[in-house]
Amino acid sequence: MSAQGQAGTTTGGGAPPVSAHFVNNVLAAAASYIEDDPDLARDVLAELGQFLSYRLREDPAPVTASQELAHTATYLRLQQARFPDRITVELPPAEALPGGRMAPASIQGPIAEALGRRLRERRGACILTVRPVPPGLEAELTGAAGEDPERVPITLNAHEEVVA
Amino acid sequence: MSGLRVLAVDDEPRALADVQRLLEGSARVAQVDTAGGGREALVRLGEGSYDALFLDVRMPEIEGLELARLLRRFDDPPGVVFLTGHADAAVEAFEVQALDFLVKPVTRERLDGALSRIEAARAARGGPAPAAREHTAPEVVALDNPVGAGKRLVRLETIRYVDADGDYARIHADDGDFVLRAPLSQLEEDWGSAGFTRVHRAHLVNLNHAVELRSQPNGTAVLAMRDGTEIPVARRTVAALRRRLKA
């Protein structure tokens, strides 16, 4: 299922729109956990709330790399809730990221597009590794052993202000 | 009537678990099988018969719409109820004559509505000849937007009345005016169970939006709608309409 590229609510700051398709499918996943694992259902809803708060805030001011990385991690946990045991994620530590500010969803957006496309087109496990490749990042997606990985460069939409 | 046999198909395991739990909780459903994709669904369909498929629209390998088109080649195809994360795909879904279209997560009320459609479709299949079958009106219809391109999904209950306009029907709904290339006779047949009735050669009315039938001196009448519109009623239909409104 694609997390991007669907009709959705446009956010400020040039970020890709929030996909109603993604939100509704996360809600369906949360509903499925209510009886089996109510704590997990609550966690999924709380993380969806965080995701939406970040993306739908009225002030689309640039964010730090650390904030954007946390947002990306939230997004990936929501995808893992939709597809349990299918997605393995490895993110870099915040200290390894470039120090400038960036538009919201600068990291999460390209990852969502690549991961959504892969989930839509292929079955089976997906291993996502994000690593710094100056001046930006690179997301690598792979599946079964021996499969050629797909590498997606992530250009950070850096702003001039430098984080102290 | 025995309970429904349903196959639910979705590549998202948790969404599939959710709709499975809802279906199993319905007294109207006797059997719920599941498939994690289109290919598995085809295997299941080869092993048993179902009254309906609850089918995710977007899946790897075989998409839901593609599977629905395949099903139409079956001699006695099961009904299809589409599941989706977003209503954008609804137009295509109606083009393959789906019984219903549910946005995830599905409410119990909407699920009940879909089950009613499946029961009606099953009764129609096992009932009299096709010409005498009762049509079950859809909840949502895809209409042409006269301004700009594309289709617009409109809930049937929000349509107040329809005027004939050459080969087209001009549809007046709460959300605006739309067009559809269809004769009023066809719309009356398709939507009749939702309260639509032909009151004039050129007018089809949703009686749920009518408030008063006013007789005219020449034997005709006008039907006053809640929005203030007055629809002419043909002389030959006045008596039947009056009986129906009293009932």
Structure description:
The complex is a heterodimer of chains A (164) and B (247). Chain A has 164 residues and is α+β, with helices and mostly antiparallel strands. Chain A has one domain (8-162). In chain A, 41% of the residues lie in helices and 23% in strands. Chain A has helices at 20-36, 38-55, 65-82, 108-121, and strands at 8-9, 18-19, 63-64, 87-90, 100-102, 126-133, 136-142, 150-154, 158-162. In chain A, the strands form three sheets. Chain A has a four-stranded mixed beta sheet with strand order 4-6-7-8, with helices on one face. A three-stranded antiparallel beta sheet of chain A has the order 3-5-9. Chain A has a two-stranded antiparallel sheet with strand order 1-2. In chain A, helix 1 (20-36) packs across helix 3 (65-82) and helix 3 runs parallel beside helix 4 (108-121). Chain A is globular and about 45 Å long. Chain B is α/β, with parallel strands linked by helices and 247 residues long. Chain B has two domains: 4-128, Rossmann fold (3-Layer(aba) Sandwich); 148-246, OB fold (Dihydrolipoamide Acetyltransferase, E2P) (Beta Barrel), CATH 2.40.50. In chain B, 30% of the residues lie in helices and 32% in strands. Chain B has seven helices and 15 strands. Chain B has helices at 13-24, 38-47, 64-71, 90-95, 108-125, 184-191, 235-246; strands spanning 4-9, 29-35, 52-56, 79-84, 100-103, 140-144, 151-155, 159-165, 168-173, 176-180, 196-200, 203-206, 210-215, 221-225, 230-233. In chain B, the strands form four sheets. Chain B has a five-stranded parallel beta sheet with strand order 2-1-3-4-5, sandwiched between helices. In chain B, strand 9 and strand 10 (176-180) form a beta hairpin. Mean pLDDT of chain B is 85; it is low at 127-133.
Q: Can you give keywords for this protein?
A:
heterodimer; A: 164 residues; alpha+beta; four-stranded mixed sheet; three-stranded antiparallel sheet; globular; disordered N terminus; B: alpha/beta; OB fold (Dihydrolipoamide Acetyltransferase, E2P); 2 domains; five-stranded parallel sheet; 7 helices; 15 strands; elongated
